[in-house]
Amino acid sequence: MAKQVQKKEVPSQKEFEFKDRMYLLKGNATPISFMLRSKHSPNKPLLYFDQEYKVNRALRWSDNQTSPFIDEQDGYAVSTPIIFENGSLFVKKEQVELQKFLSIYHPDNNNAYYEFDAEEKAAEEYDELTAKLDAQVTAREMPIEELEAIARVVLKGKVELLTSSELRRDMLIYASKNPAEFNSLVNDDSIKFRNIAIRAVQMDIINVSSDGRTVNWSGKDKGRIITVPFGENAYSALAAFFLTDEGMDVLSDISNKL
Q1: Other beta carbons within 10 Å of 109
Q2: CB 67 within 8 A of CB 7
Q3: Residue 170: how many CA atoms within 13 Å on its side-chain side?
Q4: Angle formed by the axes of helices 164-177 and 118-141, to 10°?
Q5: Could you give the 3-state DSSP secondary structure of residue 59?
Q6: How far apart are CA 54 and CA 128, in angstroms?
Q7: pLDDT per residue rounded down to tens, the chain (258 residues)
Q8: 2, 42, 192, 256 - which has most CB atoms within 10 Å?
Q9: 3-state SS string for 120-150
């Protein structure tokens, strides 16, 4: 004889907020009609793991029962299908037992479908809009030399051919579309140092050997600055070098000549 599981009280009305709820199917598909599984069977299990008793309990949605657990229902359970129309299901606040079944017990919650929360959605959209605005303000007010450094990483084509207005316009667009990436690059000092190295080569202050293995001073000095580690990009190596004590002096000299 199967062991009878002691009846467990479902969340009280005080614990479960009375409000209309909207449930949406996950993914991009929105079928005209989708019937959610609502009854446990050996071939198609529908189970809820009871944390208190550490057991899986069989579920069955029924209009005339106050519990979603089969072991707590009597023999007169009447079930109506749970159907999503065009990818959504609206449940009125008066249908609290159905809401609990969908929001608390059903194993497909947050897998096949989810509860739409307008307040949470608004908060997410607010955070996204704020991040986008912050990124655009930063792109608008950032010194052009620092903005150029980021542009060399994210923009295609030769950045040096862009006018200041074109560069700032393109970076405002990028910041608007990719605020998180832009804000991350703003705080990356290696990108700024890499840009200084590139500009120094373009202005013939320093030069990179044809094999990319050494970086030297240009002009009369022609002294070696660094030997580039095998397999590493010369500009990346210079950016790392600028962070050393010796590199800081070189960086200062280059900056004074830019």
Answers
A1: 15
A2: yes
A3: 20
A4: 160
A5: strand
A6: 40
A7: 444 444 444 444 457 788 999 999 998 778 899 999 999 999 999 999 998 889 999 999 999 998 999 999 987 888 889 999 999 999 999 999 999 999 999 999 999 999 998 888 888 889 999 999 999 999 999 999 889 889 988 887 788 889 999 999 999 999 999 999 998 888 888 888 888 888 898 889 999 999 999 999 997 767 899 999 988 888 889 989 999 999 999 999 998 888
A8: 192
A9: HHHHHHHHHHHHHHHHHHHHHHCCHHHHHHH
Q: What predicted TM-score, i.e. pTM, was given to this entire model? A: 0.51
CA distances in angstroms from 161 to 49, 152, 166, 221, listed in the order given: 63, 12, 9, 29
- Domain extent listing, the chain: 21-116, 117-187, 188-258
Residue that the structure tokens 């605005």 belong to: 133
> Could you count the other beta carbons within 10 Å of the beta carbon of residue 8?
13
DSSP 187: T
How many other CB atoms are there within 10 angstroms of residue 31's CB atom? 11
The helix or strand, by DSSP H or E, that contains position 37, with its residue range, turns out to be: none
d(CA 114, CA 235): 48
CB 139 within 8 A of CB 56: no
Compute the distance between CA of residue 91 and CA of residue 193 in angstroms, rounded to an integer: 58
Evaluate whether 16 touches 101 at the Cβ level (below 8 Å).
no
Residues 6+ apart with CB under 8 A from 134: 179, 183
